[in-house]
Design goal:
The protein is built from 11 helices and 12 strands. It has 323 residues and is of the alpha/beta class. A hairpin with a 2-residue loop joins strand 1 and strand 2. It binds adenosine-5'-triphosphate and magnesium ion (MG). Adenosine-5'-triphosphate (ATP) binds next to helix 1.
């Protein structure tokens, strides 16, 4: 296994008194797709943004090819951004309405390849448009002249212009019609496989995450609670939150181990109260909603522990729950 491209270590982000991310640790290798799932407000976008320094981290390290991005100067960070790209949820809002598609796609080349001739740029833009399924003759049009799916293709083209090593996709298909979502997902998969790009893929859509990801991270209330290879996570989730999350999606549950009575015979807890704030108890973040909680779980947040090869779970009862 090659050295990971990205190593996130003890990452923490706060917004005033609110802790949005705490003690986040994971690696990402070249060519790998990591799915990131968790309910709304759990910190998925904050994690993506903190990696790219679009929000400041208060603790930890983001090691990119061994170098801590959090310690880089603004100028050094701009250089690194060539390799670190993001595709956002709302495709139209993320494109400058006053620029044509050709201008939007030319921008990264002008910044990072200033010596490139206009002709070479034009050829590269045309090739990328074709690559993402848009006709070259559309290059002179403005974003509002395109559908949502086409705008997302433009956003993906812009992100891929410089052949980045890491592409972060923050809910790239959730604002699109269901009929279009599959096309965009398959485009991302094709690009990722052709170019060997590492991908952090954030989505509420567990079926999409299962389709794309090699490994999956599960986040709850700012904490990573489970990391596992895709097939392991969907077939045999261990953390009580992951079980609840997967069981909530009917078409996944036939291949997922749904939360059932535990070894101790407790029923699953489908309660939907909001998560406990990270700032109140010192115990497990899932304590208030967990069907398997014991008094000791209220005392300390359990660290991620390896329960099987590449399978990490932050739960005091993970070994019992695996049985
Ligand atoms: N700039 C900010 N200022 C203050 N609080 C913020 C800011 N950005 C995010 N938060 C808070 O941090 C928490 C995590 O937000 P985040 O957007 O990362 O969640 P998410 O998992 O991406 O949710 P969603 O699935 O709805 O996109 C939320 O409680 C949110 O309100
Ligand atoms: Mg988000």
């Amino acid at each position: 296994m090659s050295e990971p491209l990205l190593q996130v270590r003890r990452l923490g982000v706060t917004f005033g008194p609110f802790t949005a991310l705490q003690d986040v640790n994971f690696d990402l290798s070249a060519g790998e797709t990591l799915g990131l799932v968790g309910e709304s407000g759990s910190g998925k976008s904050t994690l993506a943004r903190a990696i790219l320094r679009l929000v400041p981290a208060v603790r930890g390290e983001v090691l990119w090819r061994g170098r801590n991005l959090l310690g880089c100067s603004a100028a050094q960070m701009r250089q690194q951004r060539r390799d670190l790209q993001i595709v956002f949820q709302d495709p139209l809002a993320s494109l400058n309405p006053r620029m044509t598609v050709a201008e939007i796609l030319a921008e990264p080349l002008k910044i990072f390849e200033p010596a490139m001739s206009a002709r070479a740029r034009q050829l590269q833009i045309g090739a990328m448009l074709e690559r993402v399924g848009l006709a070259v003759r559309m290059a002179g049009r403005y974003p509002h002249e395109f559908s949502g799916g086409q705008c997302q293709r433009i956003g993906i083209a812009r992100a891929m212009m410089l052949n980045p090593r890491l592409l972060i996709c923050d809910e790239p298909v959730s604002s699109l019609d269901v009929s279009i979502q599959g096309q965009i997902v398959n485009l991302l998969l094709d690009l990722q496989q052709d170019l060997g790009t590492a991908m952090l893929f954030i989505s509420h859509n567990l079926a999409v995450v299962r389709h794309l990801s090699h490994r999956v991270l599960v986040i709850y209330s700012g904490r990573l609670v489970e990391i596992a290879p895709r097939d392991v996570l969907f077939a045999a989730p261990v953390h009580p939150y992951t079980r609840t999350l997967l069981a909530a999606v009917p078409n996944l549950s036939n291949s997922s181990r749904v939360p059932g009575p535990s070894a101790a015979g407790e029923p699953p807890n489908a309660a939907q109260e909001p998560p406990a704030s990270l700032d109140t108890p010192s115990g497990c973040v899932f304590y208030g909603r967990c069907a398997f909680a014991q008094p000791a779980c209220a005392l300390a947040q359990p660290p991620l522990q390896e329960v099987a090869a590449e399978h990490f779970v932050a739960c005091r009862r993970s070994r019992e729950l695996m049985c």
